Structures are given as C-alpha cells and as structure tokens.
Amino acid sequence: MTTRLYNFNPGPAALPLEVLEEAKESTVQYGGRGISIMEMSHRSKPVEQLAAASEQLLLELTGLQQKDYRVLFMGGGASTQFAMLPSNFLSEGAVADYILSGSFSEKALQEAQYIGETRIAASSKAEHWQRTPDVRGLKVQANTAYVHMTTNNTIEGSRFNAFPETGETPLIVDMTSDLLSRDIDYNQFSMIYAGAQKNIGPAGITAVIIRNEMLDRCSKQIPLIWRYATYASNDSLYNTPPVHALYLTNLVLQWTKRQGGVQQLEAINRDKAALIYEAIDRSGGFYEGIIATTDRSDMNITWRLASKELEQLFVQESEQQGFEGLAGHRSVGGIRASAYNAVPRTACQALVEFMVDFQRRKG
C-alpha cells in the first residue's frame, strides 16, 4: 500500500482511513445485493434506510430530537445555502441580519442582498478578520427575519466561542468547518447548514439541520426544488440525492460516534491544535499567528513567516516531507493547517517537528 500523506487539506479534507477501507469494500457490492450503492435507485429500500439512518445519527451526535428538528441532505454545497436561505425566509418588509467575521460570511451576505433587505449586525472586517466581532450584546430589531453567522472561519482561522441571544428571532449558522468538532448547545440554533467535506463526509453533499417550525415559514413564492419543506416532506429524496456521498457521510457519522462523539472529539481537537499553536508561540516570532489568541480556531490554524518567499519554501519542503495542503488560501496567503476530526494527532505532532526543524535551518 502507498504510504499515506499527512493530510491538512482545508476541504475536501481528510477522511478516516477505516471509513475509506470500508467504503472500498462496498464499492462493488453493497449489503450483499450484487451491485454498488452508486448503482442503486434512490427509491430503493436500502437508500431510504441510509437517508433515515444518517438523519438519526446526525441528530444523536448533535444532541437534538426529531420532534424538534429535521436533517435534510442535498447537493449544491454550503454556497448554495447562501442563496437558498434568504429565498425561503427573507420576505418583503423584513430584514436579514448578518454577522461578518470572514470571507464566507461576506459571501453569504452578498447572496442575500440579491433576495431582499439586509443589515450588517456586527463585523470585524475593519480589523482584517483577525478576530471575531463581539456578539454577546447583539441588538435584534423587531423586523429581523433571522440572524446569520459563520461559526468557524475556514480561510482566516478564527471561530466564535460565544453566540448571540436572539430571542424569538431565528439564529441560523454556517457550520461547514466545525460541525461535530466541539461540544456546544446545538439547540440554540434554528437552522444549521454545513458542506460535508470538512468533518462529516466527502464533497458533494450538504447537511441542513432545521427546526420543524421553520419548515412552515418557507416561502410559497419560490420553486419547490428551493424549499426546505420540500426536502423534509420527501425525507431528502425529492430528487436524486448524491447517493455515494450520502453513504460515505453515514460511515463518517458512525466513525464519529465510535470516537466518543463531540465531547471526546472536542478534547482531541483542542489537544491537536494546542500542539501547533504552541510551536507558533514558542518560535520567537519566526512563525507569527494571525488570529487573536482568544478567537483561534481548532480546525483551521493559520500563521505567517517573514516573507512570501520563506512561506513558499516552507510549503515546498513540507510537500517533500509528506505533508499535504499547508498553503494558505489564495486570497490571504500564509500557512494553514486544517486539523479536522479525521486528522490524527500523529500528523499534528509530525508537523510540529517539521516546523521546529525548518526554523532551526532557516531562522
């Protein structure tokens, strides 16, 4: 078997090796049925059972009840949700509040502006996204349709550690890069959406966790295919879903449960991130963290070196040593290590050893 790389890709990202091994065994034959899961009708009993089991698993892992929430699986990625969300819930005369903390929260706002009236409720753009805005005392207006925020900023490497109290106004969150990575009260959110390709599966499928009462609010003025209520009433099978991606997501959710769920994974993730942040902070300025220490993400760890040339050399040498995906996002540069749930501690420890050696040789 070819030696596997230390995979720090930001998304599509690392998948658990045991999930990949199990998926390999089921690619040709699924459940002893003589055909692959990729060849089955989405109206077949196995696919119906797969969708139902995946919904139950995700609710269980987030500590949510089906009497209160539904899980919808659909294609299009989280970026599609940027437009689908206001199409369903931003009605004429109402305003959608957006909390800006990074590039993806800005993109969500831009899509909503095509649909209706929006308002920036809080922003840290003036500080170059180096921290998250303080939202603890957020004021919500009477005509606010919903409040939207991105809980973890994949590009910048920051996250929210506190969430606003919005009262009766729905709080809707993009959790693409930190869903199931930490133990928080998921009941505080009226809707959660996440592209699977960070922590819960492969690219090609998106999970939406939505309060049942929100389904009654979906606009009747948009096509059926754009309504969350359509997916809920058809158990995510209104049209052909990305079946293979759903299958892999189910395997990752099972793996997540076997690891001890979000409580155990949060402790593991905190320890992994601490290894790398400690190497940054102890480097005497050779490595410089980008984000305020109180807002640092455990999922996406970002830092800079003294010059772009040195950063390019760091990435080049890291690739030669078996590391994958350490270049920062093209819009910001620098270095980024994405240490999602499936990234083992050994990979983070190996990265720290490489960082120390690189500083010894180039510092």
TrEMBL record:
What are the record keywords, sorted? Amino-acid biosynthesis, Aminotransferase, Cytoplasm, Pyridoxal phosphate, Serine biosynthesis, Transferase
Q: Which residues form a coiled coil?
A: none
Tell me the Gene3D superfamilies matching this sequence: Aspartate Aminotransferase, domain 1, Type I PLP-dependent aspartate aminotransferase-like (Major domain)
Q: In which pathway does it act?
A: Amino-acid biosynthesis; L-serine biosynthesis; L-serine from 3-phospho-D-glycerate: step 2/3
What EC number(s) would the UniProt record show? 2.6.1.52
Q: Name one GO biological process term.
A: L-serine biosynthetic process
Q: Which domain of life is it from?
A: Bacteria
Q: Which cofactor does it need?
A: pyridoxal 5'-phosphate
Q: Where is the Aminotransferase class V domain?
A: 6-343
The record's subcellular locations are: Cytoplasm
* Modification sites for N6-(pyridoxal phosphate)lysine: K198
UniProt-listed Pfam families: Aminotran_5 (PF00266)
Q: Give me the residues that bind L-glutamate, please.
A: R43
**In the record, what terms sit under GO molecular function?**
O-phospho-L-serine:2-oxoglutarate aminotransferase activity; pyridoxal phosphate binding
Q: Which SUPFAM superfamilies match?
A: PLP-dependent transferases
Q: What is its main location?
A: cytoplasm
Task: Tell me which residues bind pyridoxal 5'-phosphate.
Answer: A78, S79, F104, T154, D174, Q197, N239, T240
The kind of enzyme this is, by top-level EC class, is transferase
GO CC annotations, alphabetized: cytoplasm
Free-text remark on how the cofactor is bound: Binds 1 pyridoxal phosphate per subunit.
User: Which reactions does this protein catalyse?
Assistant: O-phospho-L-serine + 2-oxoglutarate = 3-phosphooxypyruvate + L-glutamate; 4-(phosphooxy)-L-threonine + 2-oxoglutarate = (R)-3-hydroxy-2-oxo-4-phosphooxybutanoate + L-glutamate
Q: Which NCBIfam families match?
A: PRK05355.1 (NF003764), serC_1 (TIGR01364)
Q: What does this protein do?
A: Catalyzes the reversible conversion of 3-phosphohydroxypyruvate to phosphoserine and of 3-hydroxy-2-oxo-4-phosphonooxybutanoate to phosphohydroxythreonine.
Family the UniProt entry places it in:
Belongs to the class-V pyridoxal-phosphate-dependent aminotransferase family. SerC subfamily.
What quaternary arrangement does the UniProt entry report?
A: Homodimer.
Put simply, this protein is called Phosphoserine aminotransferase
Question: Which species?
Answer: Paenibacillus cellulosilyticus
Q: Gene symbol?
A: serC
